[in-house]
Structure formats: structure tokens, C-alpha cells
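Hey, can you fold this one?
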Amino acid sequence: MSEILFWFYLINSVLLINHEIDSAYWKEWNLFKLPGGITGFLMIHIPLIFLVLYGLVLVFQQSYTGLIFSLILSLSGIFAFTAHMYFIQKGRDEFRIPISLFILSAILIVSLIQLIITLNLIINW
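Sure. Predicted structure:
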């Protein structure tokens, strides 16, 4: 089960990082009213991407901390989908193109599967 979690974590990481690339295109800092423009947005992502990749290493090592990182990543994916669907429902134009919607939908599906696997491994730790 831990090996399966590794692959779901990796897939989710790729999807979420691609979403963040898409977010830079859509100037997501304006959507969430984050200060600093593109500079602040990029600075925030340096430690975030490091943590996502560090979590992948911990999941690969089958550590309990890796499960916590996996839990956080899967919940982050569910949050990303939910928040963006909220803004789309409110009439915002960002993230309405097919590839953006595909990435967000894939994030939701992968995050839910990852969450189930992670919780199963935590319960059986």
C-alpha cells in the first residue's frame, strides 16, 4: 500500500505544481488578494514546492511523517478544487479553460484516492 501511496503522491504533486504554473498565468495573487504580485507569489512557492518534494521523499521512505505530509497534500488538493470552483460559481473568469478545469478535476480525484490510502495507512500504522 505504501508503494501505491508514493505514486499517488507523485501524481498529485505534478498536478498541483502544474496548477500553480497555471495560477501564475491567471495571476492568482489577485484572486486571493495576496500582497507582492508575482514576486510575492513566487517567493511563497519556493518553500511550498520544497515541502511538497520533501514529503515525496518521506513517503518513499515509508515514514510516519511522510503520511502526515501526504495527508496535508491530499487535503490541499481538495481545498484547491473547492476554492476554485467557488470562485468559478461566483462568476470569476480564471481557470475556466478546459486544461485548467481538467487539472483541477484530476487534482480532486487523485487527492481523494490519496486521502483514502493515507488514512488507511495511518489507521494501520
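The mean pLDDT is 97. Let me know if you want another pass with a different chain boundary.
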